[in-house]
């Protein structure tokens, strides 16, 4: 899931917390000055570096999602079509 807030906004939030502001104060400041609506939990997640992307960024790495791509080769499609061609085919596992 992409970042909902820019790195600049996250840095601004951390700076306000370092300056001694409470989460509620930070929420009000962002709403009044920058017209950004943010929950208290999101502020806490940003301050505590929760989330895979923030954690990777803190350690100087880049987080990339890993997923398996579905392979659809012509041979595989023909194999499935042959199995499904008959009457009442078996389940493909």
Low-confidence stretches: none
Question: End-to-end distance, in Å?
Answer: 31 Å
From the helix content, strand content and strand pairing, which structural class follows?
Answer: mainly alpha
Oligomer: single chain
Round the Cα radius of gyration to an integer and report it: 24 Å
Mean pLDDT reading: 85
The fraction of residues assigned to DSSP E strands is under 5%
How many strands appear in the DSSP assignment? 0
Shape: elongated
- The number of helical segments is 5
Approximate helicity band:
40-55%
Helix/strand order: HHHHH
Largest sheet: none
Characterization of this structure:
There is one protein chain. By secondary structure, the chain is an all-alpha fold. It has a domain of 63 residues. It has five helices and no strands. It is elongated. The mean pLDDT is 85.
List the helices and strands and how they pair.
Layout: H1 7-18, H2 23-34, H3 40-47, H4 52-58, H5 74-85
Summed up, what is this model?
This protein has 93 residues and is mainly α.
What keywords describe this structure?
93 residues; mainly alpha; 5 helices; 0% strand; elongated
């Amino acid at each position: 899931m992409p970042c909902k807030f820019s790195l600049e906004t996250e840095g601004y939030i951390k700076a306000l917390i370092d300056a001694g502001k409470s989460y509620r104060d930070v929420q009000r400041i962002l709403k009044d000055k920058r017209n950004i609506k943010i929950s208290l939990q999101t502020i806490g997640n940003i301050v505590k570096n929760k989330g895979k992307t923030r954690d990777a960024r803190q350690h100087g790495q880049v987080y990339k999602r890993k997923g398996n791509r579905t392979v659809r080769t012509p041979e595989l499609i023909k194999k499935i079509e042959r199995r499904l061609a008959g009457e009442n085919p078996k389940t493909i596992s």
